[in-house]
Write a structure and sequence with these properties.
Blueprint lengths: L1 H15 L3 E6 L12 E2 L10 E4 L6 E4 L9 E3 L9 E8 L5 E5 L4 E6 L2 E10 L2 E6 L4 E2 L6 E9 L4 E6 L2 E7 L14 E3 L11 E10 L8 E10 L2 E9 L4 E9 L6 E7 L8 E8 L5 E10 L4 E3 L3 E4 L3 E3 L2 E4 L6 E8 L3 E8 L5 E9 L2 E8 L7 E9 L4 E9 L1
């Protein structure tokens, strides 16, 4: 009877135990920068930090503000005293020094002199052992968001660092070695991170959870979305599926509010690679956003990164605007039978004119190229083009990443 009880207890733990969320910030659910979407809120944050447009895929993000002030979002360290951890954050490089997640000398994950690195302490036989990765790679200076992730599995004694889903660093130590936090203080997100005072969003989508590799419900290898005619073709691959119930495909035309548009049942094959695909009809919006909701049999769930699919270039009459979304340079293509002087104005979401100019175009097909790199505006922008000869105006809505 005692043996049977022990067997039942083991099975129950294997089914119900999973990664436990500590905190998650998307910076979309509140105007208060230190408010979490789920889990613990910040104890304090720089008074200059703010939530602004220009986050990942047109969402909001965390902005250090003007004046070269560090974000310094402080979280209660006692909530992070776990034996294993998984940290994921989206970061846009605007400086050379920035810490994503810091607990003094006990733990630091971030950038030093433009290089990605991590330092952490583990319980050793004769005391704490400090692990330092050194310079893993140079963080891209492309002013775009990239996803940086660290996880440590205490069962295997193994740490991994990912950039945009690709493993860039591996540490393999002694099995059953827990993270060491004796005497560690609070956690600081965005230490030494001021965005060089450029007043742009530099952080987004922070997720920290207790990591349990042996019981993780799955490993998402990739998630892709591409346009094929008037539909979006979505595909993803997984491995190590355990007790996964389903995959819900969620869609948004703004990048903020998502609704389910389809569901697939998980195959729950642990040893092999599981390939899934789904086709969705594109809406009339310029950009369609997709994410996966991965639901476990115990009801817990996690989200994938967001993927976007561009619809056809915005076209009105003889004009079209592309690309959309746009990073830095926007093109207006015009085809007319008569020469004319064209005036363009780019407006931020608040109605402020952030760029304007005039260009005389000859008859035929011509282009107007607009440099958005100095505008600072992110998210939704409006582009108004006026034919001075005809007195007609056309306005396009564009997403700037």
């Amino acid at each position: 009877m005692k043996t049977l009880f022990a067997l039942l207890l083991t099975v129950t733990l294997a089914v119900t135990t999973s990664a436990q969320l500590i905190t998650r910030f998307t910076f979309d659910n509140s105007s208060i920068p230190g408010t979490a979407l789920n889990g613990i809120n910040a104890l304090s944050i720089s008074s200059f930090a703010l939530i602004s447009t220009g986050g990942v895929n047109g969402t909001n993000g965390l902005n250090a503000g003007l004046g070269n002030h560090d974000i310094n979002m402080v979280l209660d360290g006692t909530q992070f005293n776990v034996s294993a951890i998984d940290i994921s954050i989206d970061f846009r490089k605007e400086e050379s020094q920035a810490s994503f997640f810091n607990r003094g000398s006990y733990f630091d994950f971030g950038m030093n002199s433009n290089k990605l690195g991590v330092t952490f302490k583990l319980n050793g036989v004769s005391g704490p052992v400090t692990v330092t990765s050194g310079n893993i790679l140079t963080i891209p200076d492309d002013h775009l968001f990239h996803t940086y992730r660290f996880n440590y599995d205490d069962n295997a004694g193994k740490a991994l660092v990912y950039v945009d889903g690709t493993v860039v660093y591996t540490y393999t130590g002694v099995a059953n070695s827990a993270l060491y936090y004796t005497g560690a203080g609070n956690v600081t997100i965005g230490m030494n991170m001021d965005g060089t005072g450029r007043n742009v969003a530099v952080l987004d989508n922070l997720v920290v959870q207790k990591y349990a590799n042996a019981l993780l419900p799955l490993t998402l290898l990739n998630f892709n979305a591409e346009k094929n005619g008037n539909v979006a073709k979505l595909s993803w691959s997984t491995t190590k599926e355990v007790n996964v119930a389903s995959y819900s495909i969620e869609k948004s035309t703004t990048g903020n509010n998502f609704n389910a548009c389809g569901t697939l049942i998980a195959s729950n094959s642990y040893a092999s690679t599981n390939n899934y695909s789904y086709t969705d009809t594109l809406s009339a919006a310029p950009v369609n956003y997709y994410r996966l909701k991965m639901t476990n049999k115990d009801g817990s769930f996690t989200y994938s990164s967001i993927r976007s699919v561009n619809a056809n270039p915005l076209t009105v009459g003889s004009m079209k605007v592309y690309p959309n979304p746009v990073c830095d340079y926007l093109t207006i293509s015009i085809s007319e039978t008569r020469a004319a002087l064209y005036h363009y104005t780019v407006f931020a979401a608040n109605g402020q004119a952030i760029s304007k100019g005039d260009k005389y175009l000859n008859a035929g097909s011509s282009q107007i190229n607009i440099d958005l790199t100095r505008t600072g505006a992110k998210g939704v922008v409006l582009v108004q083009v006026t034919n001075s000869m005809l007195g007609s105006s056309t306005t396009f809505t564009v997403i700037r990443k």
